[in-house]
Design a protein that fits this description.
Blueprint (H helix, E strand, L loop, with lengths): L2 H20 L8 H15 L6 E2 L2 E2 L6 H13 L3 H26 L2 H12 L2 H6 L6 H20 L6 H18 L2 H16 L11 H22 L3 H15 L12 H8 L4 H4 L19 H19 L13 H15 L6 H30 L2 H10 L5 E5 L6 H5 L6 E3 L2 H7 L4 H9 L9 E2 L3 H5 L5 E6 L12 E5 L3 E5 L14 H6 L1 H4 L2
Main location: membrane
Membrane topology: Multi-pass membrane protein
GO molecular function: mannosyltransferase activity; pentosyltransferase activity
């Protein structure tokens, strides 16, 4: 078997492991519950323009994740694994990207090591099966930077095909998570071109065809959304993009050095071998020995420093933001390994042991996350609700927002979310309440599901009314008369009247048939 075939088999095995891990845990809250449900609702409603949470417009991010997620759910059914297939596919894309580009700029041995290092990292096996936008934009940023870099390294005139692929990747990056899909590749490439004195080549890019491709792919959704919602641009770009970057009142405030230990954990144990590449490479010719050419080495370090530096500026920091630096980390670590231990007598055994330890660690952490999600989520009460509630019944959410409940029950109408909304508009922080009432400002009719607590008293008089509340919520805050049906691990289910005998024509929600009726009635 050739070394190339071994590399592809190893990558395939690691990606299959990723798919297996994706099937072994319930949805994590809030992110996975939120984004998986938005994708499901897009499929149910047939509204492919407007991402919606509980039927309310949700314009925090562009819709590529939800478009692809809806297609996956339509193909493989409404389940957590199908929702996770979208980030898993993009993680696979990043894995292939690392192997293919490393093969072009270094030796086959370095390319194999780089791919396996990435594929055994917690970043790949964890973030690669987590339902949010981070792996999508990271993969397309990687494709964009490498495509343009290969175009510029082609010669005096950039390679048009690679450049056009870069423009297309920027468009998909913008559709994944907004302006950073264009800004981050631009930042990295601008610094690199100036540093390596290649900036004049920018004028020789296929600008007409490249911009046309970018515009045709990226712009239609933004234009249509602005036409339907006049405040869309100011909210998405002003509040959610620039506001989050420059503001100090959003969630997850972290110190400036937060991403240094975060990257060490995401890329452990391979991060150690990146340190061997701080020194400028001796070889200047592309592919010489197990090194990389100086322009490629510079690109990798500029890529890492620019993106980590960019995300270290705002007060709010999340681990997934630095996933775009995984490709250069993998390449540098592989080169460092080959130069440090590549000719050691027991090199293969040591590498295999480290890879195995990394995989076992990721599997253990996946199980820990699964248990945490089971305690935090609503999967247990969702089975009961799906089988006992009718399609016309109303579900009220009190205390907190159960992001995953509509996904598990496969609800066909929004929940009624009960809070003191007038007071919250004056005092709500960066949380789920703000997500809902700001979304309702775009569409007043959709915002009717946001009700005040007095609605629970009138709902008591009607059959077919259900209430979900977190177990941590004091029972005294639920009006007398509601009957508790089930107390789950983290949430409780209540009904408005004595349990009705199930009529012959009664049909539960689609989630009952999907999960299995007997399981739902336990």
């Amino acid at each position: 078997m050739t070394n190339s075939k071994r590399a592809w088999l190893a990558m395939g095995a690691l990606w299959l492991l990723l798919l297996v891990l994706a099937a072994l845990r319930p949805l994590s809250l809030p992110d996975e519950g939120r984004y998986a449900e938005i994708s499901r609702w897009m499929l149910v409603s047939g509204d492919w323009l407007t991402p919606r949470l509980d039927g309310i417009p949700f314009f925090h991010k562009p819709p590529l994740l939800h478009w692809l997620g809806s297609l996956s759910l339509a193909t493989f059914g409404v389940n957590a694994w199908a929702a996770r297939l979208v980030p898993a596919l993009h993680a696979g894309l990043m894995l292939v990207l690392v192997y293919v580009t490393a093969s072009r700029v270094s030796t086959p041995a370095v390319a194999r090591r780089a791919a396996v290092m990435l594929g055994t990292s917690l970043a790949f096996l964890g973030a690669g099966q987590y339902v949010n936008h981070d792996m999508l934009v990271a993969a397309w940023i990687g494709v964009a930077i490498w495509s343009f870099a290969l175009a510029f390294l082609h010669g005096d005139r950039p390679h048009a095909g690679w450049a056009r692929l870069g423009f297309a990747a920027c468009a998909l990056g913008v559709l994944s998570k907004g302006l950073i899909g264009l800004a981050l590749p631009g930042l990295v490439l601008l610094i690199w071109l100036l540093w390596t004195r290649q900036f004049a080549k920018v004028l020789r890019l296929p600008w007409f065809s490249g911009l046309a491709l970018f515009g045709l792919m990226a712009l239609p959704w933004f234009v249509l959304a602005q036409r339907h919602y006049p405040d869309f641009f100011s909210y998405l770009f002003g509040v959610q993009q620039f506001g989050r970057y420059t503001g100090t009142t959003f969630n997850n405030p972290r110190p400036w050095w937060f991403y240094l230990p975060a990257l060490a954990g995401l890329f452990f144990p391979w991060i150690v071998f990146v340190a061997n590449q701080v020194k400028v490479p001796v070889h200047s010719a592309q592919g010489a020995s197990d090194s990389i050419a100086r322009p490629v080495w510079l690109l990798c370090w500029i890529w890492i420093v620019a993106i980590v530096g960019f995300f270290s500026i705002p007060a709010s920091k999340i681990v997934g933001y630095v996933l775009p630096v995984l490709p250069p980390l993998a390449l540098l670590a592989a080169v460092g390994w080959q130069q440090w231990l590549g000719r050691h007598a027991r090199e293969r055994a040591v590498f295999g042991m480290l890879a195995l330890c990394a995989v076992v660690g990721a599997i253990v952490l996946n199980e820990v996350a699964a248990r945490h999600s089971a305690r935090q989520g609503t999967a247990d009460i969702a089975f009961t609700l799906a089988c006992q509630a009718g399609t016309a019944d109303t579900v009220y959410a009190v205390g907190e927002y159960p992001y995953d409940l509509p996904f598990y029950t496969q609800a066909v109408q929004p929940m009624v979310v009960v809070q003191d909304w007038p007071a919250l508009r004056r005092a709500a922080g960066d949380n789920w309440r703000r997500e809902l009432f700001e979304g309702a400002d775009f569409e007043a009719a959709a915002g009717r599901v946001l009700q005040t607590p007095d609605v629970l008293v009138t709902a008591l008089r009607r059959p077919g009314q259900w209430l979900v509340a977190p177990n941590a919520m004091p029972a005294g805050q639920i009006p007398a008369g509601w009957v508790q049906v089930q107390r789950g691990a983290g949430w409780s289910l209540w009904r408005s009247a004595p349990e009705r005998p199930e009529a012959a024509e009664h049909k539960g929600l689609p989630g009952c048939q999907h999960q299995g009726g007997e399981q739902g009635r336990q």
